[in-house]
TrEMBL record:
Keywords: Glutamine amidotransferase, Hydrolase, Lyase, Pyridoxal phosphate. InterPro entries: Class_I_gatase-like, PdxT/SNO, PdxT/SNO_CS. Pathway: Cofactor biosynthesis; pyridoxal 5'-phosphate biosynthesis. In the presence of PdxS, forms a dodecamer of heterodimers. Only shows activity in the heterodimer. The active site is at C79 (nucleophile), H169 (charge relay system), E171 (charge relay system). The keyword Hydrolase applies. L-glutamine binds at G47, E48, S49, R106, I133, R134. This is Pyridoxal 5'-phosphate synthase subunit PdxT. Coiled coil: none annotated. The lineage of its organism: Bacteria, Bacillati, Bacillota, Clostridia, Lachnospirales. The gene is pdxT. One of its GO terms (molecular function) is glutaminase activity. It catalyses: aldehydo-D-ribose 5-phosphate + D-glyceraldehyde 3-phosphate + L-glutamine = pyridoxal 5'-phosphate + L-glutamate + phosphate + 3 H2O + H(+); L-glutamine + H2O = L-glutamate + NH4(+). Its EC number is 4.3.3.6, 3.5.1.2. It comes from Dorea ammoniilytica.
Amino acid sequence: MRVAILAVQGAFIEHRKKLESLGAECIELRKKEDLEQPFDGLILPGGESTVQGKLLRELEMYDSLKEKIESGMPVLATCAGLILLAEHLSNDEHVYFGTLPVTVRRNAYGRQLGSFHTDAEVKGIGEVPMTFIRAPYIETADEQVQVLAHVDDRIVAVQYGAQIGLSFHPELDADSRIHEKFLGLIADCIKNNNCRKN
Ligand code: GLN
C-alpha cells in the first residue's frame, strides 16, 4: 500500500511519520513527475490553501490529482486540504478540486480561538483529540455526505465516498485512529477495484 502526500507546502511531514508508523509506504508529491509513480491513496495536508492551490496549478499537478480523486481514489484532507476539496467556500471565491459537496468557511474561528485543542466523538471511532489551527469548518453538507463529527454544533469531519475531510489535524496528536481508518479505506479500495492509478 503506497500513500502519496501532497508536499508543496504545509504540514506534510507529520502525516508521513504517522502513516509510516502504521506500516504504510509514503511518497511525497512535489512536482509533476512525482505523479508518475503508482500510489493508492492521497493526503492533502494542512497549510495555506491559497498557496497550495496556486502551486498545484503552477506545477501542473492539478488535473491529474483531480482525476484520481474523481475516479474514487481515497483521500484524507486536513484543514487547508479540506478547503481544496470543498465544492464551495462561503467566504472566498476560489474553488480548487471542488469534489466534496460541502460549503466550507475558511479561518472560521475568531481570533482568540484561532488555535485550540479539544476532544470529540468521531462516528465509528470514538472520542479523539482534535487540534485546530486557523481552522475552517463545514457550514453545510449535501445529503449524501456523511457527517462524522461536530464540535460546538459545527461540522468538523465528513466522509463522501472515499474522501475524508477534516477541519482539524489528526497528524499532530498521538492518536492514530483516523489514519488507521484511512488506511482501511485504501485496503477496501484495493480489494474491490484496485485504486492504484497512474
Ligand atoms: N487558514 C488556512 C487556510 O485557509 C488553513 C489552516 C490550516 O491548514 N491549519 O488555508
